[in-house]
Specification:
The chain is mainly beta and 265 residues long. The chain has a 23-stranded mixed beta sheet that branches. A hairpin with a 2-residue loop joins strand 4 and strand 5. The protein is elongated, with a radius of gyration of 21 Å.
Amino acid sequence: MTDWKFDATGPISADISLPAGSVQVTATQTDQVSVSLTASSKSGERLLAETEVSFEGSTLRVHTPKRSSFRGNASLDLTVELPEGSSVTADTASADVTCTGTLSLLRAKSASGDVRADRVTGDVELNTASGDVRLTDTTGDARVSTASGDVTVNGADGDIIAKTASGDIRIGRAGQSVTAKTASGDVDIENIASGLADASTVSGDVTVAVAPGTGLYLDISTMSGDVSSDLLSDDSVAAEGEATLTVSCRSVSGDIRILRAAGRH
């Protein structure tokens, strides 16, 4: 294990590049930046020896070399502790990325690992090829995607764009519009009140729960599934020009359900 410590007078920017292993970032009340790298094999130790760790101005840089000679079992476990309100950019090949605490901005990408984040006060972009993506809360916009994993966004004040090829999508609280698309999974939007709820799947079910008192316009179609709604005969269904929420749902072989949000709990 190798450790570094740097003094920080406030939030910083972290730029992280790691080929394999794990990335754990913790944002907390601190006036230091702490970095720890651990190798679990001889090839990992060689990788650690060539890893660049630097802190200049207010930018932390942790970069490992992207060289074919380090492929195989060469991996590193990275732990970073930094001040609350910092921003993080993380790019990994097969490492899980986990961020806890409050960040101001987050962009994280992994080829075959999971990506999880706690709270972000700005925009969030999370991407992985074959892992799950989970975001607890953001006051900004959220763009989350995975090729073969599940997507979960517990809450966002801004717009949400969520995409996966063969996983489920769950959106908890949506402050504004939601675009949710999956090929062979379910889409579940648990609470939305305004903007556009655009949900589509090929072979899964779609469920949208609308906040009480919301005027909405419904645009729903499925080829071989059932459609049900608590609101079809309710005064909440408005003409398109009068609606504060447009619900557009598409499914080829799945069911579509429109519910009241208060009934989900």
